[in-house]
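Hi again,

Forgot to attach this to my earlier email, sorry! This is the prediction with nicotinamide-adenine-dinucleotide bound. I've pasted everything inline since the attachment limit keeps bouncing my files.
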Amino acid sequence: MALFEHVEYDGHEQVVFCHDKVTGLKAIIAVHDTTMGPALGGTRMWNYANSEEALTDVLRLSRGMTYKSALAGLPLGGGKAVIIGDAKKDKSEAFFKAYGRFINSLGGKYITAEDVNIRTADIDIVSTETAFVAGTASKAGDPSPHTAEGTYLGLKAAAKHAFGNESLQGVRIAVQGLGAVGYDFAEYCAKEGAKLIVADVNEEAVAKAVAELGAEAVSVDDIYSVECDVYAPCALGATINNNTLKVMKAKVIAGSANNQLATPAHDKIVKEMGILYAPDYVINAGGVIHVCSEAANFSLEDTGKRVKAIYGTLDKIFTRAKNEDRPTGEIADEMAREILAKKLAEKMA
Ligand SMILES: NC(=O)c1ccc[n+]([C@@H]2O[C@H](COP(=O)([O-])OP(=O)(O)OC[C@H]3O[C@@H](n4cnc5c(N)ncnc54)[C@H](O)[C@@H]3O)[C@@H](O)[C@H]2O)c1
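Structure tokens for the complex follow:
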């Protein structure tokens, strides 16, 4: 398994392979870039088919965190960790304590938090072995409300560019996923007079949105093809793919889900279809801003301002993408790299 030659290797500063003999823990921690500050990013637990798959995921996700935090203006670098295992069977107190000791051994270069299949309770155990954690129950807590607010504001910036008006009054929004983020996001939109079309595998959440937000319910398969102005993916990754784009009527894609594009090529494909895509890691940065408030001691007011700034960041991305006739995801990556290059130059001066 090559590292420096790996297709997802992007000058990562440090990649640590961890194995604890007692609990069987196997994890990979990737520190992509610490130019802006310590590398913060969640830990994902997944039953990867092999360690190659886990390495690919952690290299890609950690680079994403560098770009996300740079564009959110945070004093943080990018990192991520993956635990290779079955979240239903392999978790134990000793397991997460061992993991905490590995994180501690990096001396603060990497700060962890929750991600897929890792709960606040797991992070609380990790925090008994290391201070380099964020998002513990007793401190910052649930980031979802800030993610929802940032996604709503990001959608308004997209509406301004795509429809000539940032108001969501009468705008038809197809919301996929009414979980912690999706429901709050839908509520913000409904309050502004948007017409919601919703889908979720959780029927209770759908019934609540119908009763409380006046939403129209459709099946999870039909959400891609409904007549709407906006598609808001707030559940799964990779839903912007060749199959869904064949039937999609939306002119804006703006939602909280991570890794929305099935492949990097879909950035260009959506542009060519005349769809305005709000790059996922920019619009959903409310969560990392929230978690960072704990790691960097931001006041509540400062955290709120940073979440509101997502509107302005997306406004800049959309303007530049239009002026240069380029895909929005490509512009976001480029803007993040410019921020990093500037900081690096300052450090070296
Ligand atoms: N929570 C945060 O602060 C945060 C931050 C950044 C990004 N995100 C991303 O936003 C998305 C939503 O996060 P969340 O915290 O609300 O998760 P969640 O688990 O609370 O909600 C996800 C919702 O999607 C539904 N769902 C699952 N499969 C579905 C399907 N096939 N069709 C329709 N609905 C389906 C679930 O039933 C659930 O209601 C995820 O992609 C997550 O990675 C979340």
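The two ends are 37 Å apart (CA to CA). The CA atoms of residues 226 and 249 lie 7 Å apart.

That should be everything now.

G.
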